[in-house]
Design goal:
With 319 residues, this protein is mostly beta strands. The protein contains two helices and 21 strands. Strand 14 and strand 15 form a beta hairpin.
Length: 319
């Protein structure tokens, strides 16, 4: 029994020792501490092992060289010019009650390989009476990304973020032509994607992160379908879908972030077009009248890959 008590006490002391931080001050002293609060002027701490109601000590930030946290992370409080780190807000400073946050805005190039096997292809082949007809696509678009990223834990290795992605596809994102232009299809979409992503750093410098991101894709389809030289204008056809992607983020510099993703998108939008003869002002096509009476819909399904650059800004929020 006595041996068990000794072992338990030893483990408790060992864990307590590991949980402490160390503050290094300019006079050469190393202060064992448990940091409880930090601001631009001072760092407040308790001594390891003291009671919860025990005294609170403090040291001026201007007197601090660095802090070594219990998980091994070291915060350097001296800049190259020898100024206090409290004057400059660092990208990652995890002590006390502060949480690091990163804002970024950027642009990407996207290559989207749409799967053309859908109702639109059946509709097109029926209308032009050609069972071998094909529908082409322009796969390149330019997404704009707005991100907010939060760090998880004091190790600075895990990130969680939200992203708003806006994508305007080219006017000929989906196109086809037959009979010298008498029959044509030309469609585009505007995406409004809401993304949640998780990242984990994979190198010692914590500049490269593996990313996984699921997202909800909302889109508006527009363009026209021309049949027998009669043009049917398509405006504001809405649909929803999702995508799942994985990739990496690389901090090229403190401000410049490079991102690469590969994934798969699925989205379906039902077609409707202006029709002055209709009581509602709109009508829609059947896939194949008399055979498939479903309303014509267009699938924006397929794999995609993106590469982009973002400009980053940093801050901290109170927990």
């Amino acid at each position: 029994m006595k041996k068990l008590i000794v072992v338990i006490c030893f483990l408790a002391l060992n864990l307590a020792g590991r949980a402490q931080d160390t503050i290094f001050v300019k006079n050469g002293k190393a202060i064992p501490a448990i940091i409880i609060e930090k601001n631009k002027v001072e760092i407040k701490y308790k001594k390891p092992g003291q009671q919860e109601s025990g005294a609170i000590y403090s040291v001026f930030v201007s007197d601090v060289l660095k802090i070594k946290y219990s998980d091994g992370l070291v915060a350097d409080y001296t800049s190259e010019a020898g100024q206090s780190e409290a004057v400059r807000v660092r990208p990652v400073d995890l002590a006390g009650t502060m949480k690091a946050i990163r804002y970024s805005v950027g642009v990407s190039g996207e290559y989207f390989k749409r799967d053309p096997s859908d109702d639109l292809l059946d509709f097109w082949r029926y209308k032009i009476n050609n069972l071998n007809a094909a529908i082409s696509s322009n796969p390149v678009s330019i997404p704009v990304n707005l991100k907010v990223t939060f760090i998880l834990g004091k190790s600075a290795r895990n990130w969680l973020g939200d992203e708003l992605q806006l994508i305007l596809t080219p006017a000929d994102a989906i196109f086809a032509s037959a009979n010298n232009g008498i029959n044509e299809i030309k469609l585009k979409s505007f995406y409004y994607n809401i993304i949640l992503f998780y990242g984990h750093t994979i190198n010692d410098k914590k500049t490269v992160s593996a990313i996984i991101e699921p997202g909800v894709d909302l889109a508006s389809m527009s363009g026209y379908i021309k049949l027998n030289d009669i043009k049917y204008d398509i405006n504001a056809n809405f649909g929803a879908g999702f995508h799942l992607a994985a990739g990496i983020d690389v901090m090229v510099t403190k401000r410049l972030l490079a991102s690469a993703r590969a994934g798969y998108r699925t989205l379906r939008i039902k077609e409707s077009h202006k029709d002055e003869s209709s009581s509602t002002g709109y009508s829609y096509f059947y896939v194949i009248p008399g055979v498939n009476q479903d309303q014509l819909s267009v699938k924006w399904n397929g794999p995609f890959a993106t590469f982009g650059l973002s400009w980053c800004m940093y801050g901290r929020i109170k927990l």
